[in-house]
Amino acid sequence: MISTRFYIITIAIIFISLGTGILIGINMNGQDLYLKQQQLLLESFENRYNQMAVEKEDFLNQINLLLEEKDHSIQILDHIIYELSSSKLKGLNIAIINTSEYEHSIGLKSFIEESGGVVPIEVNYSKDFGKFTSEKLSDFLSLKIESSKELIEAINKDIVDLITYGKKNSVLEEAISHNIIQYRGENEVITDEPIHFVVIIGGSSTIEKNHVELIDLPLIDLFNKNVIPVVGVESNDVGYSYIPHYKEAKISTIDNVNTSIGKVSLVYVISGVDGNFGEKDFSDHLFPMKAIGDN
Predict the structure, then answer these.
(1) Which fold has domain 90-294?
(2) What is the pLDDT of residues 152-162, one digit of tens each?
(3) For this UniProt entry, which segments traverse the membrane (predicted)?
(4) Does 121 have pLDDT greater than 90?
């Protein structure tokens, strides 16, 4: 006779078997679902990648078109600049004086020459001008120079005399030999014809390095006394601008002479247009449009 315990054990085994089957079925279905989800995710990534590749190609095509337009615009601008400045400075001798710590003349010489002018004199003040040691000053004792103030004033005066009369005095000769001043000049041009205009390049990286009251303003004052017109210019990226000081000295200014527009403004100022031109707040006009319109 089969006992009750046998039935209970048999029923328990049946239910355990059913439960195990259900769990296995659920796991298999879950794994299939997981694989399908992964496949869908990969397909989504692939579609997005393909879409981004197409978008990238479109962007590259747009960039190439913009670069072509930029090249065309530059060619047109160069032609306009050439037409505006060509032969505008013919017959004029222009001196360039760089008092800035930046060791370049921003391509002014070549542009002035392309505009018909001549640059027979270029003067560069050294970056550490004014910081004269006692040893450096001793080189000038024979010339009766005993202090930094006297040496600065003597060099400024000799530079103005050089540009005005075409001769180098002894203090300037000594300053050039010690590389306090860098000079390039064609004395025969100055002897035959006077300097008609002086371009002073200023601006410094910080107010601490500013030389405007040490060099620029005294030079402007001396040139005014010798009736030689001066324009004060600088790059549009200088840290400390000299333009407000130049304006107080009542001379024309250009604060973006490193740009094509600034160079054309310079040509018009040298040609006789007065004003303060450039991009910064203290400039009155971007460009001498009225003068160009009158031409």
Answers:
(1) Rossmann fold (3.40.50)
(2) 999 999 999 99
(3) 6-26
(4) yes
* pLDDT 10s digits, 252-287: 999 999 988 899 899 999 999 999 999 998 888 988
Residues 6+ apart with CB under 8 A from 45: none
Q: Residue 193: how many CA atoms within 13 Å on its side-chain side? A: 14
Average pLDDT of the chain, as a whole number: 82
Whether the pLDDT of residue 24 is over 60: the answer is: no
Structural contact between residues 211 and 129, judged by C-beta atoms closer than 8 angstroms: yes
Are β-strands 118-125 and 181-185 bridged in parallel, bridged antiparallel, or unpaired? antiparallel
Q: Where are the domains of the chain?
A: 1-85, 90-294
Please, which residues have CB within 8 angstroms of residue 10's CB and are 6 or more apart in sequence?
A: none
Strands 118-125 and 93-98: parallel
- By the 10 Å C-beta count (0-12 exposed, 13-18 middle, 19+ buried), 27 is classed as exposed
Minimum mean pLDDT range among 67-71, 131-135, 161-165, 167-171: 67-71
pTM given for the model: 0.73
Q: What pLDDT is recorded for position 50?
A: 80
* The predicted structure's pLDDT at residue 249: 96
**Residue among 162, 156, 166 at smallest CA distance from 190:** 166
